[in-house]
Amino acid sequence: MHVNPAFRDDDQSASLILARKRGFGVVTVNGPEGPLAGHVPFVAEPTCIFLHFTRSNPMARLIRKQGPQQALLIVSGPDAYISPDWYGVDDQVPTWNYVAVHMRGQVELLPQDRLHAHLEALSEANETKLLPKKPWTMDKNRPETLEKLKRMIVPAAMTIETTEGTWKLNQNKDEIARSGAADALDGSNIGQNISELAELMRTWVRL
Length: 207
Description:
Blueprint: H1 12-22, E1 24-31, E2 34-44, E3 48-54, H2 58-66, E4 69-82, E5 95-109, H3 115-127, H4 143-150, E6 153-159, E7 162-168, H5 175-185, E8 191-192, H6 194-203
Antiparallel strand pairs: 1-2, 1-4, 2-3, 3-6, 4-5, 4-8, 5-6, 5-7
Helix pairs in contact: 5-6
């Protein structure tokens, strides 16, 4: 990604926390006929991303045939349109605030016997977010049902070689303008996870 120095944050731990919290992204590799991309849930560890593909996924077939591939994982955080009227100062233009993380590394398929533990970790990571609901666990399914479904997917892992994060939160505006935009943003409906973005605009300023 192109990271504007004004919005760059070299604290890779913050980017990893965002990726772990989101747990969903787009993984891309270069295929023989052009780029391949897939939307995948994942579990993020400090040095590795654990994910899975459907067995018929072109990326899974490519890796199975040619071995590990260089990959890019794109994780999108909150984003929203920012109206220039919200700053309370003249001569402003519209923009789009957002948070995004790009991770690069080698993606490879794992032995099939690693799949069960991966799926347990993946469901646990997401079920925990639904507390106080009693977490769903894999033992609630009949073994034959699980085995049938597991035959359709393959486990994979991507080593994290580099991490880049963009945190575009109006750091180039003064505190009054930034706070005004954050307050107005709470009433907007153009974007996703808007309240989270507004809170980041108020607190994530590192000039």
